[in-house]
């Protein structure tokens, strides 16, 4: 799919009229898509497991933060590449702090600035609120060449502050490589085939897993033995284990070490009541 043109105010108005940067949940359309942005790094189009749509992520760092947001129980909606519209408001803020407002390359057209993530989160009281998050490599915020980046971030921060929305920068120091690798692995098992979605099966699986604590098995060996005891395939046992971890029925340290089938069974806690969890899943 071809990228869109940003050469005139009419182009911007047409994109707004076509719904870019609008909507919520599965109906949200990012202001920028992968094909709209020439990238010197890696970009990603990922089918969401929390929100049923394709997410457009313009860097590996955005992908990393996206995985964390999908895994978080507090995040209920993820809107990436969210536009700071109208541009007049952002331009006025830039003028007030004596910062040059960005323009599209080879034009005099004011740029539609975006925030990497606008999240809807649920607080401890069950209330919903929006928070804005920009992801940056720490190296881009310090040293030579960072001045212009910091100027644009100051515009972005003040736009959200003027709307009463919490805004923060998330850097690569926020998460470990192991966390992102592990989330990428277990995310594939966020849902199971219907024949594996049975509370008694999961309960028996956890009982077997609990009984394995006294043995020095690898995770693969443990899952093979559980598969034999429950008369399911090894592949199904593996899927159930990762599913229970992704859905936080089993709690393990995902940030401290890579989750490997050839490694030892990780320390785990049974964190949720299976019946309550199953009821929650059926409602979603």
TrEMBL record:
Residue intervals of the TnsA endonuclease N-terminal domain: 72-172
InterPro entries in alphabetical order: Restrct_endonuc-II-like, TnsA_N, tRNA_endonuc-like_dom_sf
Gene3D superfamilies: 3.40.1350.10
Pfam families on file: Tn7_TnsA-like_N
Protein name: Transposase
Organism: Pseudomonas atacamensis
